[in-house]
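Sequence only, no structure available. Ideas?
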Amino acid sequence: MSSMMEDQKKPLLTDTESGWKSYKNYERSGSVSRLPISGADLTYQEIRSAASAPSYYPPIHADPITLTDPHSVNSMPRPYDQEIRFQDGYSGNQSNNIGSGSLDEVEIRQLLIDHIGHNLCWASRPARTWKITNVEDCNVYVGTLETFIEERQAVGKTEPYQGGKFDTGTPLGIWKIDLQTNFPPLFTPSMKTVAKIPHSESVTDCTVCHAKGKVPCETCNIGLKPGRYKENQMTQCPVCYGRGLIAHKDGSDTICSHCSGKGQLPCLTCASQGLVTCQCCQGHGSLLNCSMVHVKWTTLSSRKVIAASGAASVPHEIFHSAKGMELCNSQAYQCTPAYFADSYFLNKFSSDVIADRPHIPPTARIICERHTISVVNVHRVTMSHRKQSFSFYIVGLDNDVYIGHYPAKFCWGLCCCFEWIRA
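Reply:
I predicted one. Tokens follow.
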């Protein structure tokens, strides 16, 4: 056990201290909030796949605790220490026996009676007298791990040098550049920025024009050796075909207005000078070289879903309306599995989520991680009387009741009237 704890404390990619100290504004920086998981975040295929997959379900666990290290109670937390928050009042015992779950028989029956009371044509007798024969756990658990990383790459940049001073010297390493003013809130989905690396500038001659600022015109110097050019190169007039005159049907000739009777035109690219401005150095003959650091912040996310076998048969619209509850929320430089007292299920589930940590690019490093475990509560209750039975669902944090078929519905067409009077 001690060796396992030591392994968990080792940093994954970079030194923990240096990973946090490079961001002095970390304690002042906020983070992108994350809404609790709800049933609407789960697809029907995802629930069915999780319910049918072999797993270590069902859970048997007691109240979670918030400290993974008993010796750290009196220690002052540092920015990179793991902070774990558990939902207050959560009781995670799950069982098919009445009284061992979060709802007992009295509470279940009262929830059903209250629901029946809002339906004027439903009799309350089945809710009051029928026997509760089974309470089935249909919960869905969702574990997430968000890894906020920063990726840096040095890219060269060249631009025409127009004179003046330039920043030369020994360039800083890309991870030593201070980008506090550009640092986004933690767990921003994606953000990019570009900054110049200090002391990385240098001036060199343009290799395209050999520091002359001009290059031979490619329009009127076709076929010449590289670097050679000729001036006063003319082209034939396309209107008079070099004659300088325009012939008419009556046999007369007029001077070509396009070439002014010369029969030739100067090069449209260089005006027959034979040289054009070098596009690489914009005619300056020198280039200013520098290194730019391209920075990208990204949140890599992984999610794992596990569900009770009964969840596969729950109508999806019931899950869609359910509100989830966050059992654990931890944030650290490198998250470790959460610890729940007497809960092998949640401990193992948390370990599996952490083990599925996304791949980190070699040019990136971890800034922070956030690990959550949430549950979407759904219980299917079956009530029986003699040979009759019906089922209903208790869903979410608000314990909403959903009934597809109630055995005591009596309607004489007065529902609309009663609803109008109530309104």
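The first strand starts at residue 83 and ends at 86.
Hope that gets you unstuck.
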